[in-house]
Amino acid sequence: MAKEKSNKYLIVALLIGVIFHSSAIFFTLESTYDALIHMFFAQHYATSWFEPWNYSWYTGFTVMGYPPLVHQSIGLLSLIGGLKFGLFTVAIIGIVLFITGVYRYTLMITGNRTVAGYASIVAVFSSSFVETLHIFGQLPSIIGVSILMHCMPEIYLWIKTGRLKYFFRSISLLAVTITSHHVTPIFGMIFFIFPLIGMVIMDVSREQVDSYKEIKFKLFLQTFFKLFKRIVAFGAASLFLIIFCIFPYWVNSKANPITQVPIPHGSRDNFIEVTSSGLMFFVIPWGILFFILPYILYRYYSKRYICFGLSISLLIVLGTGGTTPIPLKVLGETAFNILTLDRFTLWASIMSLPMFGEFVYRLIEGDLKTDIQNRFGNVYHRILGALFAGSFLFMAGFTITLGYFRPFQPEKINTLPLVNFLNQDQHDQWRYLPLGFGDQMATLSSQTKAKTVDGNYHSARRLPELTTRAIERLENSKFRGMEGIGSLQQFLTVPEKYNLKYVFSNDKFYDPILYFCGWHRLSLLENGIMVWEKLNIAPLPKVLPKDEVPLYLKLMWGIIPLLTVLIAFVINIQSIFYKALKIKDEAKPDFFKFAVAYKKFPFKIITILHLWVILLLGVIGYSMYDFYLYNATQISPTNVVKSYYDALDFKYYEKAHSFIDPNKKLSISQFMLETSVADGILNSYAKLDAIDIQVIKSTENRANIVAKTKWITPLEIINKDYYHEVLKRDGKWYILPQKLPLDIPPDQFLLDNTTEYFKQGRRKITTQQTYHEDVLKQPELEILSAKLIQYNNEYIIIGELQNIDNFPADVVLKSSLYNQHDKVLATFNAKDVIKHKIMPKETTSFRVNFEEISWLKKDVAQPTTFNPKEFTPKDISETPANFDIQSAANVAITDFYIQVALSDLLIENNHLKGTLFNYGIQEVTVPELIISYYTDTKELLYVDNYFLREGVRVQRKQYFDYKLLDLSNCHILLSSLDNCYVNGLPNGDLARTIVPNRNKQVEKELLQKVNGKGFSYIKIEMNNYIGNPK
Amino acid sequence: MIKKAIHIVLPFALFFLFVFAVSKTNNPAASFQLLTTEENFVAGKPITLAFSTPSKIATADLFIIHSYGKTLLKSKNNNGQLLFKIPAIYSQKTGFTSWYLLQNKKTIVTGSFKITPNNNTPTLLENYLGPTTLLTGLNHFTMMVAIPTDSYDNPKEDNTTVLIKDQFLNDIRITAEKTKSFIAWKNIYSRTTVGKMLVSTECENTDSKEFETDIRPSIGKDFSISFSRNHKFADGNQITKLETSIIRDQFGNLVGDGTLVTFQITTKNNILLKTFAATINGIAIAQLLHPDHEDTYRVKGYVTGIAESKPIEISYNALINTFPYQFSEKNREITVGPLKSFMKQIIPDGIKVELKIFHHNNLIETKIAESSKGITTFYLLPPFYKEKEYQFEITTLGVTQKTEIKKYENN
């Protein structure tokens, strides 16, 4: 036998692949979805190899929830050159493994080295691989599937020949697959190895007859029984490995089963309805492969590959997610909701690669080329080839640059200031919460000892507050609608439960909710991240709870994964050397015998392919036209208004301005000025969620339009109707500009005197605990009234309190309900119906709702609409007999803006219509009204709040319209100050020494008489949030 | 294989058995007698307990219970004598110590001794002062607590004299307090003026550092309010300033800066309006926008539940009594104005003008517009207002005028 030459195609593929991908990963990998999580896990192994418990996320979790090989490898390499070195090295190894894996897999399938070479070249640019690596960053998945492909020829040879060396090679490689990714071998068994076994049986049967056509089912069955022992041996060995190699993982899954509410994933969407998911999880992974799908199916449905044909069909169907009902039926409800279905498409595309390589080979230098040239001429063949290659490369380029043009992550955050902040002044003794960090929160976690309540590996979530909601992370809760914000609000309202003291906000969106939950800004770090702080939070205890696992599991987890690599290396190194260096002539493996001679490309396949491509192009063309029509901006009155709001939502002012009637001569600068003067919850913190445009009146050339908009804000959902007049000019519709407010403020220049505060903290420069004498005395509060009420079947605590000290106070108010036997029924803190920062002698009303950890019970229907204000009241089955209030005050130094006057009020038709006037020098971004309701005997009955939609600018008015509540079913159950405590002492004890003779009558003079349903008086208080303090 | 293992293991097992057996039988029971006669020791001095026994080989362990903890001491029989050296961490701490001499887990002799503070070492002083802020007045006090200790951090014996000193302005007071239950303390009463009080202590030539407590004003007394404004007209565009007199506490101190004063305004229609201000140097100045219609405001200031002012009245005169309006463009354009102010000047932009549109006395729509250069224009587009006649009601600056019924052409 002549010495085999090195396969130049494979060498080319490796060279191009390594250069192309490894230079690209430096720009893509760190902004992928998963890479940073893998880096965080790697950091864990690098610092505590054998200890599976990690305190950094979710109040502690175990890393035994994810196979460790890739993480451990990165961790090990990080000891040489740091975490990123480890990450990139493993990624490059993954690239090499993938290209060679495709080569070996194709070689086994086709038995043709040239075809295998072609397949390895196309694998480099295959869009599914590019997407998995450069967009998803799923390193374990890539390494798992690559090793599986390396493993398959060995399995084939073991079953075919029964030689033990193949058996050991195959199971050693399989063990590596298992320890790098758990899902790959389990489903790989079904989708790759079963068809492979089928193919071996076919080949063995083929040897007994003259052609594949003669193989009948009986022969197939006979052969199967002949090979049965080998198959069972392999099956048993692999089953054992799957269990043994990641045994701690299975133990952990049993101990902490995934009982979480499924998190929505784009791969389960209907791809036709949610086109972005369709793009990410169907169009991109298939890419150009989809155009030659008939060829792939034709080849895989030939008799030899029939099992692969069935497998790939199933994979294609499962990969369609929620587009068809089949995946749900095949997988069942549970698996459908846990698995991400994009992996099926990935596998289908990888399975297609050998056939793709074969197709390319036949197109470039094989029978397809001759056939096309003979029938359609040389020019056609060249044009076709160029188009094919061009669009193939375009898909790869498009995929790799997608993240550049449409970033999936917030801009890269410099974490150093955060790390420094956490290390400073013992800030890491509390938990922190990043907001708006994207997956970069994992980077921060891998750089600091400090702990967060959040995390980025949702299968490991432990707090019921998180596992009961379909939210991945608190950090991006605004994208999870009501559940996200609702969950975040609970964490922010009761932060002491989690020792949560610091919030790093990289997204202004969350600022109002932080303020209204009683947090304040601490400092703006040099990377532009705002640190928010909450007072009165105890530091983390020195010893934190953890779930202990037996030593043998720890040892297995720490030793087996790398051992599998070592064993696989030792077992396979010889054959790799022989193959790569061509030292020794190896006998050609058996599968070479079954190579097909590419002699005659069937014409009907050429015809079908042409028809298929035309059909696909037709579909693509039609959807583009449809897309254009839907987005054509000025063809109808509704379209122009819709486009106008879309443009405003994304802050494309120039585009929005182009929809304004040009005859009105509104300049772009004037337009921008008018749209951006008003600050407020709607203008600065809202995301347009839905818009419904209706025509009120219309004529040929003119129409009155109402845009019913729905905005998501961190505080509540806001519905607002905007009225527009539109008119038609030269066939295009335009919006008439809105009239701008003409009101001019009284003064041109104004000055203001206020008292400002500062607290030193430690006066000595020392890292020690704060000295006793540097601790400020807690300001003294007095709870003036406290009541347990029942309103709409919900038990609520309301009351009023006053800061009777000379220092401004930050108030934290916590209330508990008790039954007759003094058993606690519920505990919660006052959220946003209280003024948390109060001046000396200022009073505030408060309300405490007892919130349940939302939707803890499965049978309670989850609301489908978003409303962050909504929450599930705690189901208190017993009637509360008593309650207590624990209030604590700490010296506050910021956020007391009181210069807003109620300058006009009209009570009509059960509405409060009023005017606020801001006489100070700060722009109030979100004014909140706290409205207290009183009975006819001037007894407090209920407290409500209302956020104004727009801010109040300096020396300007802002109008509000508040609908008064119907309180006919609101009852006072208990009114008592007996169990009220201030700073741990009984309410009133110290207050009487400060205010010996309180004038109770005065409070009653401050009430506005109204004729309401169930109430007779109201009081209005204001809580002003300044978004941008100057 | 197994046989071989037995050959190795067996000699070892036998050897250990022998060793343990020897050590087990090596401590014959014997009687012990305490030689040390002292029962009082001074902290920091080494303490050794000596026992004698007739046996030359018998040993015993000494179990001690000390306020600092418990421990077991071992000793050797040195020619019929056993010496137990109490570790320094125990002998440096004062307290009552019980000891038990144990032999073969049985108590043979027991006894106790006492360690007292070492008065020959330099005295240390530990101090606490709180609260660190006080209110003016005769009932409020801060407590100074001093704990004199020896160098080993043992509190001194009771009745040690500690001098507690405080300074407020020119007044320096020194009192001598005796320690009782380790501490000496004094309630230092507040004064009637605001300021900073410094406190320190002294004991046996050791001086403490300076401690401070701030005396802050107590709650304010009733006050009066006044107002100032540019003119008396209700133009909706000027500011009236409301100002309190200097608010003081009962001793004449200015109330703390930042004290919130609520100004409540009661209008002619018994509507309550509000504005707020915090005091600076006892004075709170709040601002209020003029109404845009004639009104009389009754204003009262409150420091809620604590102090209040007598009410004052502020009247605002109407800016206009009537205003002109015209219909043009086949009655489709309604021009209101020019609105003129008290000196016939054109009113500032932004005055609200309300147009109510009636058809057969049914209200169809209310349009609101703001004036610009004194003029406000409304336009009724023919496609949207198709009826043959309309009547209007125009309201601005508190004045309402009803127009006659206007006829419209249908086109």
Automatic annotation (TrEMBL), chain A:
Keyword Chaperone: no
Keywords assigned: Membrane, Transmembrane, Transmembrane helix
Segments traversing the membrane: 9-29, 74-103, 115-136, 189-206, 227-251, 271-298, 305-324, 344-364, 384-405, 555-581, 601-625
Keyword S-adenosyl-L-methionine belongs to the record: no
Protein name as catalogued: Uncharacterized protein
Originating species: Flavobacterium degerlachei
From TrEMBL, chain B:
Source domain of life: Bacteria
Protein name (record): Uncharacterized protein
Annotated source species: Flavobacterium degerlachei
